[in-house]
Amino acid sequence: MSYEPKYTITTVLLAKVESAAALRERIRGASVELSWIPALQKETRSRNAHASTAIEGNPLTLEQVRNLEGRETLAGSDKRSQREITNYFSGLRYLEKHSDKKNVRHEDLFELHRTLTDGVMDQGESGCYRTIKVRVGRYAPPDPEMVSGLMFELLEWWNQAAVKLSPILSSAILHYRFESIHPFADGNGRVGRALGLWELYRRGFDTHHVFSVDEFYWEDRQRYYDALNEVRRSGEDLTGWLEYCAEGLCQTLERVWLRILALRVHSDTKLVLRPKQEQLLQLLRARASLAPTEIWAALNVSRQGAMNLMRPLLDAGLMEKVGGKKTGRYILSDPKATTRQQG
After folding, report:
1. pLDDT of 20-64, one tens digit each?
2. Largest CB tally within 10 Å, which of 35, 112, 125, 206?
3. Would you list the DSSP string of 94-135?
4. What pTM did the predictor assign?
5. What residues are paired with 6 via a beta bridge?
6. Which positions ≥6 away from 121 have C-beta within 8 Å?
7. b/e map 133-161, b = 16+ CB within 10 Å
8. Using CA atoms, how far apart are residues 343 and 340, in angstroms rounded to an integer?
9. H or E element: which one contains 335?
10. Sequence ranges of the domains in the chain
């Protein structure tokens, strides 16, 4: 018997799915300018590797993760933390290499698990389903003798029924069901989030591999865990989880669009957003407008430091000042207007 997910397409979920699909089309339309893709792909790999491992407790900062890509060691941090990051980079390369794979087998999951957990397993064996009972907080996943059969059903659903759904939904369903089965002794969180990303790749939703959805989960880890647990409390009804994941994908796509705009400022100049600049843009999106004093207080920088961060964003047309000299506030620019000005 194949796995059959239970959920309801609510008006909230439908609106979020439609919003994510529209944002994706806007990003896809921008892909005619191929020059921005490599820089955005590199940044996305770093953000995915940082966020997914940070959820599991990895202490490395985003800047350290950026510096670690392509290197074997990083001064000032422990070897295990570094190994988790380099493993995740390898796992992302595995997903990119197999992004057009039509049918995923158990062996493919074993290979991905080995790649992500090599040398960092706390229990069990890398690359094979667990033979021990495990607990995730208060949740007790299925007994080990049930794992193979449940994963067979999940793979059957993924390879056959999932293609009938929007990839926004199928990636979220796959993510949750994998985590509920918890088929490996260790590393399930990283693998489950990677599988959700892989589905977006396989279905052509993230054609250029520039979405870092794991950032959304990491920024409010408690909400992420609560959303997973709520499915169990509601009798395996996935509706709330799907709404949550669709919200995360919308937020991710909005961030990608801002990064694209920054990279497209001028044909000969690429603006790569610094962390505090991206933080500022996110604050403006959340609060609609900010006074100058609110900006430097929120970013924990001096007045001059704030202006140094803001000036490139103002020049790029990503944000603008409205109001008088003394009462002026800063807002996000209309992305469509910015694109028209650049064109």
Report:
1. 999 998 888 776 556 667 878 888 999 999 999 999 999 999 989
2. 206
3. HHHHTTT-SS--HHHHHHHHHHHHTT--SSS-TTS---S---
4. 0.81
5. 237
6. 185, 186, 187
7. ebeeeeeebeebeebeebbebbbebbeee
8. 5
9. helix 335-342
10. 11-263, 275-342
Fill in the DSSP letter of residue 208: T
Provide φ and ψ at 331, rounded to 5°: -135, 165
Q: Which class is 275-342 in CATH?
A: mainly alpha
Check: CB of residue 116 under 8 Å from CB of residue 87. yes
Locus of tokens 């890509």? 69
Collect all residues with Cβ–Cβ distance below 8 Å to 309 and sequence separation of at least 6.
Answer: 274, 276, 277, 280, 299, 301
**Token output for 239:** 């509706």
CATH architecture group of domain 11-263: Orthogonal Bundle (1.10)
CA 87 – CA 183 distance, rounded (Å): 19
Distance separating alpha carbons of residues 215 and 70, to the nearest angstrom: 21
Distance of CA 195 to the CA centre of its chain: 12
Q: What is the pLDDT of residue 317?
A: 76
- Measured CA to CA, the distance from residue 179 to residue 136 in angstroms comes to 10
